[in-house]
Write a structure and sequence with these properties.
mainly beta, single chain, three-stranded antiparallel beta sheet, Rieske Iron-sulfur Protein, disordered C terminus
Length: about 120
């Protein structure tokens, strides 16, 4: 059975504005609310390893745009767009679930590797 950890109340998240959290096993995640959907991805950009994904902008195609070099990563899969020729890395994606008005995120047993290509 997958283990989840409580991250925050849903009222703490603004639409299309990311928020950084650090889990109890020191994994940085970026959490985004898009309408009534909640997404959690690694906060560490695989391109230059900056912990700034939570400060990225969400576009209309459900990609978060890293604020450092503008690489786009899918909130659903963590992958860059198929036509991207410069970058093949991806963000780790976490499962989410709602319990009442609280957001819970799937817990990782190990820290995420920077080089998940």
């Amino acid at each position: 059975m997958e283990e989840y950890i409580k991250i925050c109340k849903t009222t703490e998240l603004r639409n299309k504005i990311g928020k950084k959290f650090v889990t109890d096993n020191n994994v940085e995640i970026a959490v985004f609310r898009v309408g009534n959907d909640y997404h959690a991805v690694s906060n560490i950009c695989p391109h230059n390893h900056s912990p700034l994904i939570s400060e990225g902008v969400i576009d209309n195609e459900m990609y978060v745009i890293c604020p450092v070099h503008c690489y786009r990563f899918s909130l659903l899969t963590g992958k860059v767009p198929a036509d991207n020729k410069d970058m093949s890395g991806k963000l780790d994606v976490f499962k989410t679930k709602l319990i009442d008005d609280e957001l819970w995120v799937g817990k990782r047993k190990n820290k995420i590797s920077f080089f998940d290509f």
